[in-house]
Specification:
The chain has 4 helices and 5 strands, in the order ββααβαβαβ. The protein is of the alpha/beta class and about 120 residues long. A 5-stranded mixed β-sheet has the order 1-3-2-4-5. The longest helix is centred in the middle third of the chain and has 13 residues.
Length: about 120
Amino acid sequence: MLEVIDKGSVSASHPVPLLFVHGAWHAAWCWDEHFLDFFAARGYRALALSLRGHGGSTTATPLRKLSFDDYLEDIASVTAGLAIEPVIVGHSMGGFLVQKYLQSRTAPAGVLLASMPPT
């Protein structure tokens, strides 16, 4: 089960949700501390997921045996549950995952913050 922190709601002025993807050694909490409430207060639906094995997201597989493909499945799972494709924001390893996600899937935009390069 994936942990997803979900705040705010889409609005007429901001109909596209924002999905935040954390980097290594973090979880959804890192976005919740300063970002989710900020965007929710401005009319956005802001969500942050904890990738499997991070935060409150469970996995039967040891963390060291998880792959980027596993994490891409996590992102796809969350986006599939949304009525509208989100803008995906990623930091560090999360930025790498956003780049890899967008190689084979669509989103209105991807935002990279201090991202790992895709190679």
